Amino acid sequence: MSSGPMGRRAKRVAHATSYAVGRTTQSWRLLPSLLIAGGQRCGTTSMYRALAQHPAMIKPVLRKGIHYFDVDYRADLRHYRAHFPLARTGRTSAARVGARPVAFESSPYYLWHPLAAERIAADLPRAKVLVLVRDPVERAYSAHAHELARGYENRDFETALELEDARLAGEEERIRRDPDVESHAHCHQAYVRRGQYAEQLEALAAHVGSENVLVVDSHDFFSDPAPVYTRVLDHLGLPEWPRVAFEQHNARRRLPLDESTRARLEAHFESHDRRLEPWLGAAPSWRR
């Protein structure tokens, strides 16, 4: 029963039951040592599902993204820990490859949320952070289609671009003043700004350390996933795992982007893409 009112009710009951059990046993549960922090619409779901196939990678019990460090930080660390498996379960699974367990989750708003990086540094000071990036023009267009389909956007792409600065004006400051604020525009309508990856990575590294941040070009991951996957495992100190099925998830069909809009956005992102090169160790795929 996966759809319809009864399916949704069953899912809510399952979540509530799992969380209640997790809360009472949270002290025996794992905390993440890896966060997939973004970017939005950059292949994070595909990476999450590939990593979840490794015996030492321990995913949350019910959902891939917990959003604790962005919109749910009013709760406490016990609440967060309740979402993960028992430590003994993780150790048993990781022992299959002679490794330690690496609990992880994927919440793509972490990269963009103005308070997430400092919260991660405070609560998970030794955690690694994985970030995926893609052509920011394609990311913006994909994000707009995604938010439109979810009902979080009601304007066409060109109009949304024109409105972006006005929609976002003062929103970051408002979130910083009141950490419990959830800004609809900041979360759902930052099409251009969320593609300015380098400035977000620099802010993230200022809190968690650049040595703990790994950046992956999603085009490289989708075109030749195995070496990228190995690089991620090496970053985590984990052995290779050959039995991985790589699949692309959450792709969305849409009309071609207007070429004049593309050219204008490519010009805007040019300097931001140059700042991204040191993080990738090469020019991004969309500039090669």
How is the topology of this model organized?
Elements (H helix, E strand, L loop, with lengths): L3 H21 L9 E5 L5 H8 L5 E2 L18 H5 L5 H8 L7 E5 L9 H8 L4 E6 L2 H15 L6 H12 L2 H7 L6 H5 L8 H12 L4 E5 H6 L1 H12 L22 H22 L8
Parallel strand pairs: 1-3, 1-4, 2-3, 4-5
Helix pairs in contact: 5-10, 10-13
- Tell me the series of helices and strands, N- to C-terminal: HEHEHHEHEHHHHHEHHH
The biggest beta sheet is recorded as:
5 strands, parallel
Report Rg: 19 Å
Compute the average pLDDT: 93
| Strand order within the widest beta sheet | 2-3-1-4-5
The level-1 CATH class: Alpha Beta
Q: CATH fold name, please?
A: Rossmann fold
Low-confidence stretches: none
Tell me the number of strands.
Answer: 5
CATH-assigned homologous superfamily = P-loop containing nucleotide triphosphate hydrolases
Measured distance between first and last alpha carbons: 46 Å
Strand-residue fraction?
5-15%
Helix content: 40-55%
Number of domains: 1
Structural class: alpha/beta
Count of DSSP-assigned helices: 13
Provide key terms for this protein:
five-stranded parallel beta sheet; alpha/beta; 288 residues; single chain
How would you sum up this structure, described in words?
The chain is α/β, with parallel strands linked by helices. It has one domain: Rossmann fold (3-Layer(aba) Sandwich). The protein is built from 13 helices and five strands. A five-stranded parallel sheet has the order 2-3-1-4-5, sandwiched between helices. Helix 10 packs parallel to helix 13. The relative contact order is 0.16. The model has no long low-confidence stretch (mean pLDDT 93).
